[in-house]
Design brief:
The chain has 625 residues and is α+β, with helices and mostly antiparallel strands. It folds into four domains: 42 residues; 190 residues, Penicillin-binding protein 2a (Domain 2), CATH 3.90.1310.10; 325 residues, Beta-lactamase (3-Layer(aba) Sandwich); 34 residues, no CATH class. The protein contains 22 helices and 25 strands. The radius of gyration is 37 Å and the shape is elongated. The N and C termini lie far apart (131 Å). The C terminus is likely disordered.
C-alpha cells in the first residue's frame, strides 16, 4: 500500500488547524529571532563590527615608559615628569601628498619634517619617527580632526622632565635629549626619537632611570588608523616605569653654593667624610637643564658649546689646576710617616729657600714646626721637606690619596688630573737627572701637579676621618618599582697606610689655620671647630686661582669641602668667605637670613636673636619683645 493510500493522510488529520497554528508560531518565532539578531548586528553592535570589517591588520604599538624620578637626601622631589604629546610618522604608511597638510597643521616647515625622516631612513620603515615633541593641545586637536587624510601620522603620549629646585645642577644631573643616529647604531634597544640621558646622572643611570617598553596591539584599517583594540588588550604588555634615584645631595646647600658662585668660574664640592656621600657638587658657569625639556630649539646646544665661558665644562670634576698650598698637608703626612720629620722638627724661615743658585721665596715665617708651618702656610718648610721626601715617596703618597687617578664618582667624563712621576718627567726630558728642582715646587703644590676640586674634597675628607678614602658618590639608593623595595648601593673604601697620630697632627695644624690666627681666620664661626687650609695656585696667564679646603667639626666631622674659584687671587679672599657661608648654613640653618632680616628691621633693637639647639641641628629664632 502506498503512502498516500494511508487513511491518516486521506482523512486530512495531519493538516488540522491545531498543527497549522503550531508550525506558524514556530516560523514567526524564528523570524523574530532573526530580525532581533539582525537589529543587534546592524544597530546595536554596528560600530564594533564596522570597525572589524574595516580592519586590515594588527599593528604593534610601542609604549614608552615613564622615566624615573630623582630625590635628594631629605626625599625632596627634584626631578620628575608630566605627560606630553608627541607627533610621530610611520614612514611605511605615510603618503607624501599629506605633507602640505601636516606642515600646515603643525606649523613645521616641510623641509624640516623631511630632514627628520631622512635622518632615520636607514632604520625600519615600520617604526614610528617622532617629529614634534611637547605639542600644544590645539595642534593635537587639528591633527586628530584630519587624521583620515594623514596616513601614518599618530599622536602619542610621552613624558616631559620637570625640575623642582631653585638652581641648575646641570653638570650634576645632566639632561635628556633625543637619541642621535650614532647612538641608535650603538644601542639596539632604542628607536628613532627616543630620549636618552646625556651627561650627569641622567647618563650614568640611564638603564635604571629609563624603564622598559610596553606593547599594545591594535587593529587598523586600510588607512593605517586605529579602529579597535586587539583581543580586548589581553595580549598587551604594560610598560615598566624607570626606577627612582635617592641622592646623598643636600638640595638646600646645592642651591646656596650655586648662588655663591654666581658670576664666577669655579666649583664647590662637599662630602660626608664618614661614607663618601656627595652633599654638594656645584660648578659655574653652567646652563639650565630645563632648556632640554620638551621641544629643543636646534641652536641651543651650538650656542652653549661655542660660549667662551665654557658652561658645558663641569669644573667640579673636569677643571685641572695646581692645588697650591692645599697640597701641604699631604707633604706633611708623607714626611711624618717616613720619619723625615717629627712633630717637633723645626725650620727657620728667613724669607726663602736656596737650592743651587736659585732662591725660592717665602714671606719670612721664623722658626716653625709642622703644625705652625701649616697654620702660616710656610713655603720654606715645605720646599725643604719636598726635596727631602724624594720623587719615589712623592709618587707613593700622592697615589695613596688617588691623585693622578679617577675618584670613580658615579658621573661620566671625570678627569684624572696629573701626578707627575719620575717616568713621566723623564719621558718629557730625557736629559733630566735630578728631580730636586721639581720637588721644591711639588712641596707647595705647584709645577706639573694637576688636581680637580672633586679630588681635593675626597682628599680632605680622608684627612678629616683619620685615613679612610671613600669613593665619592651621589646616589645613595634606588627605588625598584617592581619589587616595591629600596636597594642600597655599595661603594669602595680603602684604608690609607699612614698612622692616625700623624693625621691628628695635621688636623691640629688645619684647626690653627682657622682658629689661631692662621691664613684662614676669616672663615672662623663662633661655636664651631673648623679645620681648613688656604691655597693660591699660580697662574702664568692671569690672576692666581683661589682654593680653600676644610672640614668641620674637628672631632667627629660631618662635612668636608673644597671651594675653588678661577682667577680670584688669594684663597682666603674669595674661596674662604664662600666656605664660611656654606658651613654656617650646614650647621646653623637659616641663621644668616634671620640675622640679615633682623638687621634690616626698623624694630631690630626690640628683637632678641637666639639659637635653639637640638640633638641634630641648630636653628635661629627671632623673638619680638
Amino acid at each position: 500500500m502506498g503512502l498516500f493510500d494511508n487513511p491518516f493522510w486521506v482523512s486530512g488529520e495531519f493538516a488540522c488547524k491545531k498543527r497549522h497554528k503550531f508550525f506558524k508560531f514556530i516560523i514567526i518565532f524564528i523570524f523574530i529571532i532573526l530580525c532581533g539578531r539582525l537589529f543587534e548586528l546592524q544597530v546595536i553592535d554596528y560600530n564594533r563590527y564596522y570597525s572589524q570589517s574595516e580592519s586590515q591588520t594588527i599593528k604593534r604599538n610601542r609604549i614608552t615608559p615613564v622615566r624615573g624620578s630623582i630625590y635628594d637626601r631629605n626625599m625632596n622631589l627634584m626631578v620628575h615628569n608630566i605627560p606630553s604629546f608627541t607627533i610621530t610618522i610611520t614612514p611605511h604608511e605615510f603618503r607624501d601628498e599629506s605633507m602640505p597638510l601636516l606642515s600646515y597643521l603643525t606649523n613645521m616647515d616641510s623641509l624640516e619634517i623631511r630632514e627628520i625622516l631622512k635622518r632615520y631612513k636607514y632604520y625600519s620603515k615600520f617604526v614610528p619617527v617622532k617629529i614634534m615633541r611637547d605639542v600644544s593641545p590645539d595642534i593635537v586637536a587639528k591633527v586628530s580632526e584630519y587624521s583620515q587624510y594623514l596616513m601614518g601620522v599618530d599622536v602619542t603620549i610621552d613624558a616631559k622632565r620637570l625640575y623642582n629646585f631653585d638652581c641648575n645642577m646641570a653638570h650634576l644631573l645632566g639632561y635628556t635629549r633625543e637619541i642621535t643616529s650614532e647612538q641608535l647604531k650603538k644601542y639596539s634597544y632604542y628607536s628613532p626619537g627616543d630620549m636618552i640621558g646625556q651627561n650627569g646622572l641622567e647618563q650614568s643611570y640611564e638603564n635604571i632611570l629609563r624603564g622598559r617598553d610596553g606593547v599594545q596591539f591594535v587593529a587598523v584599517n586600510y588607512l593605517g588608523q586605529r579602529v579597535a583594540s586587539f583581543a580586548d588588550g589581553e595580549k598587551d604588555v604594560l610598560a615598566s616605569n624607570g626606577f627612582d634615584l635617592n641622592l646623598a645631595l643636600d638640595m638646600r646647600l646645592q642651591e646656596l653654593s650655586e648662588k655663591l658662585l654666581a658670576g664666577k668660574r669655579g666649583a664647590v664640592v662637599a662630602i660626608d667624610p664618614n661614607n663618601g656621600e656627595v652633599l654638594v657638587l656645584a660648578s659655574k658657569p653652567d646652563y639650565d637643564p630645563r632648556l632640554f625639556s620638551g621641544r629643543v630649539p636646534a641652536d641651543i646646544y651650538n650656542a652653549l658649546s661655542s660660549d667662551k665661558s665654557y658652561p658645558l665644562l663641569a669644573r667640579s670634576l673636569q677643571s685641572q689646576y695646581p692645588p697650591g698650598s692645599t697640597w701641604k698637608m699631604l707633604i706633611a703626612l708623607a714626611g711624618l710617616q717616613e720619619g723625615i720629620i717629627t712633630p717637633n722638627t723645626t725650620v727657620n724661615c728667613t724669607g726663602g729657600y736656596v737650592l743651587g743658585n736659585r732662591t725660592y721665596k717665602c714671606h719670612g715665617c721664623g722658626t716653625v714646626n709642622v703644625k705652625q708651618a701649616i697654620r702660616v702656610s710656610c713655603n720654606t718648610f715645605f720646599y725643604k721637606l719636598g726635596v727631602e721626601l724624594g720623587m719615589k715617596n712623592f709618587e707613593k703618597y700622592g697615589k695613596m690619596f688617588n691623585f693622578g687617578e679617577l675618584t670613580h664618582i658615579d658621573l661620566p667624563h671625570e678627569k684624572a688630573g696629573r701626578l707627575p712621576t719620575a717616568e713621566w718627567l723623564q719621558s718629557k726630558d730625557k736629559s733630566l737627572r735630578s728631580f730636586k728642582g721639581r720637588l721644591v715646587n711639588y712641596g707647595i703644590g705647584q709645577g706639573e701637579i694637576l688636581v680637580t676640586p672633586l679630588q681635593m674634597a675626597a682628599y680632605v675628607a680622608a684627612i678629616a676621618n683619620g685615613g679612610t678614602y671613600y669613593q665619592p658618590h651621589l646616589v645613595r639608593s634606588v627605588y625598584n618599582h617592581l619589587t616595591k623595595k629600596t636597594d642600597q648601593l655599595n661603594y669602595d673604601a680603602k684604608k690609607i697606610k699612614i698612622d692616625k697620630k700623624y693625621f691628628d697632627i695635621v688636623k691640629s695644624g688645619m684647626w690653627e689655620v682657622v682658629n689661631a690666627g692662621g691664613t684662614g681666620s676669616g672663615v672662623a664661626i663662633y661655636g664651631l671647630d673648623i679645620c681648613g687650609k688656604t691655597g693660591t695656585a699660580q697662574n702664568p696667564h692671569g690672576l692666581d686661582h683661589s682654593w680653600f679646603v676644610s672640614f668641620a667639626p674637628k672631632d667627629n666631622p660631618k662635612i668636608a669641602m673644597c671651594v675653588f674659584v678661577e682667577n680670584a687671587g688669594y684663597g682666603a679672599a674669595v674661596a674662604g668667605p664662600i666656605t664660611r657661608r656654606i658651613l654656617e648654613e650646614f650647621f646653623f640653618p637659616g641663621r644668616a637670613e634671620a640675622l640679615a632680616r633682623a638687621a634690616q628691621d626698623t624694630n631690630a633693637l626690640e628683637e632678641n636673636v637666639i639659637i635653639e639647639e637640638t640633638d641634630t641641628s641648630k636653628h635661629v629664632k627671632i623673638i619680638r619683645n
